[in-house]
C-alpha cells in the first residue's frame, strides 16, 4: 500500500502540536516517541520524527513527501520548498536583540558588530538589504547567552514569549520575520501521493476551520 511520508519535529516546540493536528484529523498514530518512524492505523500515512534543521533537505531529496515545519526553518534552509497550509500554531518571530544597556537607534548601529545566531542566511539577507555588514557567529542553541559571555554584541534568534530575552537582559530591536507552522511539500512528491495529500489537506482545512 502506498503511504504518504510526513516529517514532524522529533522533539521541541512543534512536536506536540504537530501530532495533535494529525490526531484532530482523525488519524491515529501509535505513540512512537522513541522510534523514529510510526505508521498511522487508519490513514495511508507514515510519520518520520526528524530534527527540524534536517527536514528541508529530506523534502528536497524526496525522502519524505510532506512536513510540518516552522516557516523560519524554511526561510533559513529551504526557500526553494513549496508550502501549502499555514497551520496557525508555533507562532514566533525571528528577531535581532542586543543588551538592554546598549544604545540602539537603528539597524545601522549593528555595523561591524558581532552577532551570534542559528539563522545565518536569514540575518545575512536582512542586514544586506539594510546595507549593514556584521560579523556572524553561528551557534546552534542557547544563543541568548552569547552577549553575556562576551562572545557577541547582539543575537538573532526566534522569540516567542520573550522570556528568554528577558532572562538574559536583552532587548528585541528588529523583527526580521514572523513565522508559524506550515505544511511543506517535497518537489519530488509522486502523483499517487498527491492524491493522498489532497485528502489530508481537506481534513486539515476542516480542523483549522473548526478551531476558529
Ligand atoms: C528557543 C529559541 C529561543 C526561545 C524563544 O530556544 O531559540 O531561545 O526558544 O522562546 P521564548 O521567547 O518563549 O523564551 P529553545 O528553548 O528551544 O532552546 P535552544 O535554543 O537551546 O534550542
Ligand atoms: Mg534558544
Automatic annotation (TrEMBL):
- This protein's major location comes to cytoplasm
Q: Which cofactor does it need?
A: Mg(2+)
Q: Is Cytoplasm among this UniProt entry's keywords?
A: yes
Can you state which reaction this protein catalyses?
Answer: 1-(5-phospho-beta-D-ribosyl)-ATP + diphosphate = 5-phospho-alpha-D-ribose 1-diphosphate + ATP
Name the enzyme group at the top EC level: transferase
Q: Where are the transmembrane segments?
A: none
> Could you tell me which residue ranges the ATP phosphoribosyltransferase catalytic domain spans?
51-205
Q: Which family does it belong to?
A: Belongs to the ATP phosphoribosyltransferase family. Long subfamily.
Protein purpose: Catalyzes the condensation of ATP and 5-phosphoribose 1-diphosphate to form N'-(5'-phosphoribosyl)-ATP (PR-ATP). Has a crucial role in the pathway because the rate of histidine biosynthesis seems to be controlled primarily by regulation of HisG enzymatic activity.
Name under which the protein is recorded: ATP phosphoribosyltransferase
Which organism does this sequence originate in?
Answer: Flagellimonas pacifica
Per the record, the gene is: hisG
Amino acid at each position: 500500500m502506498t503511504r504518504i511520508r510526513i516529517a514532524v519535529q522529533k522533539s521541541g516546540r512543534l512536536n506536540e502540536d504537530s501530532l495533535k493536528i494529525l490526531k484532530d484529523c482523525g488519524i491515529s498514530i501509535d505513540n512512537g516517541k522513541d522510534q523514529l518512524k510510526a505508521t498511522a492505523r487508519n490513514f495511508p500515512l507514515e510519520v518520520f520524527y526528524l530534527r527540524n534543521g534536517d527536514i528541508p533537505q529530506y523534502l528536497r531529496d524526496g525522502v519524505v513527501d510532506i512536513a510540518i515545519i516552522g516557516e523560519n526553518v524554511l526561510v533559513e534552509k529551504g526557500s526553494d520548498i513549496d508550502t501549502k497550509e499555514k497551520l496557525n500554531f508555533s507562532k514566533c518571530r525571528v528577531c535581532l536583540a542586543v543588551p538592554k544597556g546598549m544604545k540602539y537607534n537603528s539597524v545601522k548601529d549593528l555595523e561591524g558588530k558581532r552577532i551570534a545566531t542559528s539563522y545565518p542566511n536569514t540575518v545575512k539577507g536582512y542586514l544586506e538589504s539594510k546595507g549593514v555588514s556584521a560579523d556572524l557567529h553561528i551557534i546552534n542553541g542557547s544563543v541568548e547567552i552569547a552577549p553575556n559571555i562576551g562572545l557577541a554584541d547582539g543575537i538573532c534568534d526566534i522569540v516567542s514569549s520573550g522570556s528568554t530575552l528577558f532572562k538574559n537582559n536583552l532587548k528585541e530591536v528588529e523583527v526580521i520575520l514572523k513565522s508559524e507552522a506550515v505544511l511543506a511539500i517535497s518537489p519530488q512528491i509522486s502523483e499517487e501521493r498527491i492524491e493522498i495529500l489532497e485528502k489530508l489537506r481537506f481534513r486539515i482545512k476542516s480542523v483549522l476551520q473548526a478551531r476558529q
